[in-house]
Amino acid sequence: MSILTVKNLTKQFGGLVANSNIDMDVEKGSITAVIGPNGAGKTTFFNMVTGVYQPTSGDILLNGESIVGLKPHQVTRKGIARTFQNIRLFGAITVLENVMVGMHTHLHGGLFSTIFNLPHVRKEEKEARKEAYRLLEYVGLESLFNEEAQNLPYGAQRKLEIARALATQPKVLLLDEPAAGMNPKETSELTKLIYNMREELDLTIILIEHDMKLVMEISEHIVVLDHGEKIAEGTPDEIRNNQKVIEAYLGKGAAATAS
Amino acid sequence: MIEQVLHTLPQVLIDGLALGAVYAIVALGYTMVYGILELINFAHGEIFMTGAFVGTAILLTFSGLGWITSMPAIITLVLVLIVTSVLTGLLGMGIERVAYRPLRNAPKLITLITAIGISFLLQDLVRFITELKNGNYILTGPNLFNKQIGIEASSILSVFNDASVKSSFFIVLGVAIVMMITLDFFVNRTKWGMAMRAVAQDRETAALMTVNVNKVIALTFFIGSALGGATGVLFAVQYGTIDPYIGFILGLKAFTAAVLGGIGNIRGAMFGGILIGLLEMFAAANLPIVSHGVLGAEYKDVFAFAILIIVLIFKPEGLFGKVTVEKV
Amino acid sequence: MKNWLSTIQANKRLQAIMIGLYIVVTFLSLYLAQKSVIAFLLLLASLLLLYFTTFSNRIKWLVAGLVMVVLLPFAASQGEAYQSYMEVATLVGIYIAMALGLNIVVGMAGLLDLGFVAFFAIGAYTYGIFATSQANNFMPFGHYPLSGGSFWVFIFIGCLAAALFGILLGIPVLRVKGDYLAIVTLGFGEIIRIIFNNLDKPVNITNGAMGLASVQPPKLFGLDFMYPSQFYYIVLVILLVVIFAVRRLEYSKIGRAWKAVRENEIAAQSMGIHLVRTKLMAFAVGASFSGMMGVVFAAKQTFVDPTSFTLLESITILVMVILGGMGSVPGVILGAALVTILNLQVLTELTNWLNQLSLNGVISIPDALSPAKMQRFIFGAILILFALYRPQGLLPAKNPVFKKEDLTDTSGHPPMNAGVQKEGAQHVHLDS
User: B328: which chain A residues are within 8 Å (Cβ-Cβ)?
Assistant: First the structure.
């Protein structure tokens, strides 16, 4: 069953076409990778799915419902969460509070009930704190919960972004280069985490990645973009041997030698 | 009513041009600094004001020494302009070095706060120095170029009233045009000008291309402040009386001009300045008429602020600027 | 020195003795002296010392309450300078509330508002117009001035009016990019002042530059509130409500949303935070504090005119926030107290003292340099020095620190994610 469908999606910035006629079907519960050389338009694609950019044309359907035209915070409420290529944490607040921000859409304290410290708000906050801690345990960051987010080491910051995204209780999780800058040990932990998230939290995962080992190991379906267009799609094996993909990454000469 | 508007039109045009020239050059300072550092240099209005005071002080000293009568006025003015612009240029450079450079990597909020602090500091500094020397913080300069020239606009179209203009008007306009042309030439045709444009586009890459970024930024501040200071002198010559608080409102309007023309765009700033000057004079002359006395002349400031707000809300890139998209 | 400090911190009894002694000494000095500004300020400073002690919050509030409600007024009442002390204290309270409001906008939500005094003006004029005969000029019904009894209702009306205005102001202004927000709010602040200064035609609503005089004093059970010492208690109560509200908001979903917006707007949006609504709420809440105090101010001064609401005022409040610590409630309280006392007491006392010295021929400071006039210079210097060397302020904002025991689930309550989890799933803990 398809949870996310993208039809003919195009994005133009002035004269530059960043994405051109992208078609994609994402199966519920699958792990899909979007790959391509730098500048291929992968993050632009994510940005359109999450409502940061409005497509020039085309449609995006979540569970059959079009989400084009929705603002980012509305897209999140619909059940799509993301992490960022360049880490975007809330640096000056604690790790725990970062995750709690993710819970924003599920908390109900209004202005007056907060000011008057009504019991249901107090209870909600307490439960939210506990839930945030549980999420930190899930990604392995629970020992750092009182630390300021900007003081965390790089790998921990990436994990925190994931925990924060999970806090929004998404149906679809978009990970933008989650393994960037990670060493092999961290990458293998990340691989385990992605599998776990898919299994235990009933998530559909789409990731942009350059780490080919991770991509080949973990994805069930790969979509390849180059110069804004989809040039190939299929299973890891199919993509590995695809002429166009090799050409895109390594140039025409390499494609010739490979075949 | 239209008749009344037309009556005053020639005078409005002349006053508007004079004021607009002042706004235009001050706007240059804002737009150049914003282009290079993405910082609104709040203190720039005060640099203009300092220029006005320094220039007037020098003129008063000259007249005290009896030099004014012995030299042709235009030479005196040029001398004063040169000295003042160098001094204010150095002041601007100094401010950048001491207050803005250390904060180059700090959040924007902090730098804005520093700029506000400098603005206040300068205002009071000038105030008490003037008050010490003069007993009062309002300063009146010696009269240069005071001859009133009549322009018989009524001979063009009978509905126009005759306009009268001080000879200083031509000087102000002339000097302003010379400054604008020189700057335009400098920025577009010289090596350093190109360096300035490069740093404004992409600081890191410019540095990789062996551009000394710190020097370029210092140069930008020097030029912007020197021009601002020189304009201050022109302003003092044109309007005669100055106080330490003229920089604030004028700075705001000049900033409006810079935004209107497209922040970072030098030619846009010049255009914006003239436009705002004309609009303001037009409003001052005609608002009371159009609103039958309800909206007084003080509302001309509201008018300028309103333009600023409307531009920033509906067309923040200004008339000649480009829309920038933030990379996510 | 460090050892000495840590022994004190460890020993609560020692702290209690030291602070108790301090309060007693300053109380007595104030009580016995005819006019001692220093004793007054020192007694106030006991609150700062209290802040640094390690007693529980409840005890700290109790002692603070004792000092502010009983000891300070009582001691001050024995001298001839009673009303002037209370005047200072009242104004400090008013400014603290306003600074707390600006703290929400600038410190928590990261929105640099340079026209903040406009909300104060709204509150003041709201009461001023209806509590003088001014409203007769344009209101089709009712007889004005309203009696002093309406003051209490007007505190709420002023609060709402300012909040509403904050929202109206925010709607256009928040679409503007970060750097420009400061200038736009500055522009609006000036526009409001100019409008109030000119709103005597066509319909006379604010009486323009002449201002509104003879504002009705508040009346409760037949008692007219006319002296600073009486307004002191009104301000104290409102201030307590404000502090309570800010504390609650700071560590709530709303407070976190503000901080998230400040730290990274784009990420905040991805967390489902509605940017405009969150920012508007910051404006509205911040404005409402100023609105309430504006009403009190109008009643206290019995005169309202546009000269109390200039850019200098907005910058003054900003200095309070920067000095104390952006985003920090205790910091801003300290900052507001320091700046107000500086303005009202220190500068004037210093000027008087220097004048005395010149009169006695000891030294001669020219009038131009008199400290009372050097406000802009001092504020400018504070802003620059703090921005360069201590941007976090005197008492920097502190993040909440939780205890692990409070966070681990012992109640058997299912986690919120339960609906999303498949049946019988186990958590897998990763090695970190």
Answer: 43, 47, 52-53, 84
pLDDT in tens, A63-121: 999 999 999 999 999 999 999 989 999 999 999 999 999 999 999 988 999 999 999 99
For the entire predicted model, the pTM comes to: 0.89
pLDDT tens-digit readout, A11-24:
998 888 989 999 99
The structural domain count of chain B equals 1
Q: Tokens for A117?
A: 């410290």
* Residues of chain C found within 8 Å of residue B284, distances taken between Cβ atoms: none
Q: How far is C177 from chain B (nearest CA, A)?
A: 8
Residue range C241-272, pLDDT digits in tens: 999 999 999 999 999 999 999 999 999 999 99
Distance from C-alpha of C236 to C-alpha of B14, rounded to nearest angstrom: 57
Chain C interface mutation, best of A115, A185, A203, highest count of C Cβ atoms under 10 Å? A115
**pLDDT at B66 exceeding the cut of 80:** no
Domain definitions of chain A by residue range: 2-258
Q: Which CATH number is A2-258 given?
A: 3.40.50.300
Closest CA to A169 of A106, A84, A90: A106
pLDDT digits (tens, 9 = 90+) for A190-249: 999 999 999 999 999 999 998 888 999 999 999 999 999 999 999 999 998 888 888 887
Of C404, C409, C417, the CB nearest to A169: C417
Residue B259 included in any domain = yes
Taking CB atoms and an 8 Å cutoff, what residues of chain B touch A84?
328
For C175, which residue in chain B has the nearest alpha carbon?
A: B313
Q: Is C168 on the interface with B (CB under 8 A)?
A: no
Our CA-based measurement puts residue B80 at a distance from the nearest CA of chain A, in whole angstroms, of: 49
CA distance C99 to C106: 10
Q: How many angstroms separate the CA atoms of A212 and A200, rounded?
A: 25
**What distance lies between CA B208 and its chain's CA centroid?**
34
- Look at residue B83 and tell me if it is in a domain: yes
Residue B199 lies in a domain: no
Closest CA to B116 of B53, B50, B54, B40: B40
Residues of chain B in contact with residue A47, where contact means CB-CB under 8 angstroms, are: 328
Could you give the strand order of the β-sheet that contains A65-66, starting from the edge strand earlier in sequence?
A16-27, A2-13, A57-62, A65-66
